[in-house]
Amino acid sequence: MDWSMLQQYGPSLLKGFANTIVCWALGTVFGMALGLVIALIQRYAPRWVTWIIQVYIEVIRGTPFLVQLFVLYYGGPLIGLRLDALPAGLLGLTIYGSPYFAEIFRSGFRAVPDGQIEAARAIGMAEGHIVRRILLPLGLVSALPALVNFSIILTKETVILSIITVPELLYQVQRMSAETFRYVEANLVLALFFWGLVETISRVGHRLEARITKHLIERT
Amino acid sequence: MLAASSVEMRKVNKFYGKFQALKDVDLSILPGKVTCLIGPSGSGKSTLLRCINFLEEYDSGEVRIDGQLIGYEAPNKKMSGRKLREMRRSIGMVFQQFNLWPHMTAKENVAEGLIRVRRMSKADAERRAVEALAKVGLADKMANHPSRLSGGQQQRVAIARAIAMEPRLMLFDEPTSALDPELVGEVLSVMRTLAGEGMTMVVVTHEMGFAAHVADQVGFMEKGELVGVDSPDRILHHPQDARIQSFLRTYHERNSF
């Protein structure tokens, strides 16, 4: 193996990695936010609204991210939606992740015992307060492991953004391997970067979990 | 003396699909009086209790608190959420499973409603919360989360949470049924104190001793019907109805050894 090309390509790889992290982080945050909104609407909106949202969830979950991205980036201009590669990629990730996050939040909310919601209703608490003070904090705790898990899955979906020319890590790695013919090394670099990222997210997730469940576990 | 509410139920019916959970229930509760509801499980006691603060939506009939209809503006016209919340403010409820919020300390559990519903400042709410906790004998546990409290302590925090709101009526849904036997006494004694202060209380219970000694009237329910309402002595010691006799016979057999 020959790693000498790293000297030349190091900076562009790091830039690509930074782009990957930005795409992942923003895509995850926006996707989670949209998913949360969807989950709350699903819980409170009238039947016909939830039905429409359910169709959205099924369509997004039922189609590959690659296809969604193509439709958005290359099909978007046909309906006047002209986006640069990076914003298109972010929007794509947000849309792609939202139904999964919505389902995770939904199951988190369902894990909150009805009685604890009833206790809030019984003292006359308004629905908005119940959501903010009871449903969200408790639902998030139950949802956290699954949220972290899906965030990890999303890291690896970011590579698909390379096909719409977002200069993220895979894009840079492919450029390097095409120019140096060092495919094995290039892909090892790709794997190592991702492994580092996933490992970090998973550790942060565990720590977060330990912290917020501290008071929720019965101790005798 | 506290200001206490009256409750008036007229021909209350409740259906779950085809199953009729309440059948034409009539019940009058005078201000400051304690009413215990007894009967076999599944007889509709809890459903009846939950209709009083409209956690359970009755289908027909009337439930009035101090003369005001709860849940409906008129037959078939639901009350607005805001109005319902306003009425619920003065009705405290205690659940079988305590239902404390596990992410808050005992003090925060009690203060939450004061801050969000009564719009008190955090400092005032916490002061009141500590008073309420002291009243149920738990001032020293105010910083504990529910996970660090025994069942009896959790239930007393739940009572503190309800009384801190200064209700005029308290509903208890089998408050001691989820407790280990040795913890039942501490909860009943708090309830007895509350009754002594003149709080209107409706208590669904299997504690016949509490019903016999504290209640002003005892109602017996079976299959969705309020079979009889009378003094504890007349219901528990000299029941006329065969269904009550049979229930009490089973109860005594189970509790004798």
TrEMBL record, chain A:
Membrane topology recorded in Swiss-Prot or TrEMBL: Multi-pass membrane protein
Keywords assigned: Amino-acid transport, Cell membrane, Membrane, Transmembrane, Transmembrane helix, Transport
Annotated ABC transmembrane type-1 domain residues: 17-202
Superkingdom per UniProt: Bacteria
InterPro entries the UniProt entry points to: AA_ABC_transptr_permease_3TM (IPR010065), ArtM/GltK/GlnP/TcyL/YhdX-like (IPR043429), MetI-like (IPR000515), MetI-like_sf (IPR035906)
Cellular component GO terms held in the UniProt record: ATP-binding cassette (ABC) transporter complex
Subcellular location: Cell inner membrane; Cell membrane
PROSITE patterns: ABC_TM1
MF annotations from Gene Ontology: transmembrane transporter activity
Segments crossing the lipid bilayer: 16-41, 48-73, 85-102, 134-154, 180-198
Biological process terms in GO annotation: amino acid transport
Family (UniProt): Belongs to the binding-protein-dependent transport system permease family. HisMQ subfamily.
Name of the protein this chain belongs to: Amino acid ABC transporter permease
Source species taxonomy: Bacteria, Pseudomonadati, Pseudomonadota, Alphaproteobacteria, Hyphomicrobiales
TrEMBL record, chain B:
Keywords tagged on the record: Amino-acid transport, ATP-binding, Cell membrane, Membrane, Nucleotide-binding, Transport
Presence of the UniProt keyword Iron in the record: no
Membrane protein topology class: Peripheral membrane protein
Primary localization: membrane
Localization of this protein: Cell membrane
Pfam families according to UniProt: ABC_tran
Record keyword Membrane present: yes
PROSITE patterns: ABC_TRANSPORTER_1, ABC_TRANSPORTER_2
Domain of life: Bacteria
An example Gene Ontology molecular-function term: ATP hydrolysis activity
GO cellular component: plasma membrane
All residue ranges annotated as the ABC transporter domain in the record: 7-248
Similarity comment text for this entry: Belongs to the ABC transporter superfamily.
Designated name of the protein: Amino acid ABC transporter ATP-binding protein
Organism: Phyllobacterium pellucidum
